[in-house]
Write a structure and sequence with these properties.
The protein is mostly beta strands. It has helices at residues 2-23, 107-115, and strands at 29-32, 44-48, 54-61, 64-80, 83-98, 133-143, 149-157, 160-173, 176-181, 184-187, 212-223. The chain starts with a helix and ends with a strand.
Length: 224
């Protein structure tokens, strides 16, 4: 009986792990930071509409997930012949919200922990008092199949910068441009966000937080 139970437990654990992997988006290609893209002086400029732009995030742990949003602070993009060539946007890390918890039921505590506004836990995640903004600067674009574009750029978080690449769909309607990514993941430890990471700490048991953070970016910008 005990042998059957152990076999069932092993199968269940494998099934849960497999399901968790399937639920995660593909990881963005990550490499060293590169030189930012430069456009011609005659390029058309677009200004981000921060009220209609956002970044959706999702974090994973053995007992489940948490998700929420982060607002943009500002953004400027340039196009040549209607094609996105360069640009940058700032991310307001102090705006991190948790969407899957109710107020008074852990929402405020998790938001404070992520922002680093809890005394003694400032550097667990994003330490927004010291690093209130993150940034993304475009380094290149590449046309893909089915009307998609591979967007590459330097992502700076907590003073560390790495280049990431991921697919986006870019649409132009009248004087508006929308840049919308597919969901993708990044390894947070590459930016020094190490809290609860099994790849950094050896004694966590099952009390860990996955290294992958899933992101989905939507930026809407208006022709200047």
């Amino acid at each position: 009986m005990r042998t059957k139970f152990l076999k069932f437990s092993m199968i269940l654990a494998i099934a849960i792990a497999f399901t968790s992997c399937k639920d995660k988006a593909a990881e963005a290609n990550t490499s060293d930071a590169e030189a930012a893209a430069i456009s011609e002086s005659s390029s058309q400029k677009y200004i981000a509409n921060v009220g209609e732009s956002s970044i959706a995030w999702k974090g994973f742990k053995p007992t489940g997930t948490h998700n929420g949003t982060i607002n943009l602070e500002s953004g400027i993009f340039k196009t040549d012949d209607g094609k996105l060539q360069s640009g940058t946007f700032l991310i307001d890390m102090t705006s991190i919200t948790v969407a899957d918890l109710e107020a008074g039921d852990g929402k405020e505590n998790l938001e404070a922990h992520l922002k680093g506004t809890v005394e003694g836990k400032e550097n667990h995640f994003f330490d927004t008092t010291k690093f209130p903004s993150a940034a993304f600067e475009i380094t290149s674009t590449e046309a893909l199949a089915a009307g998609k574009t591979r967007l590459s750029g330097n992502l700076a978080i907590k003073g560390q910068k790495h280049n990431i690449s991921f697919p986006v769909t870019i649409t132009n309607t009248d004087d508006m441009m929308t840049i919308e990514s597919e969901a993708f993941t990044i390894d947070r430890t590459k930016w020094g966000v190490n809290y609860g990471s099994k790849s950094v700490f050896d004694d966590l048991g099952d009390k860990f937080v996955n290294d992958e953070i899933e992101l989905k970016i939507v930026v809407k910008a208006k022709k200047a």
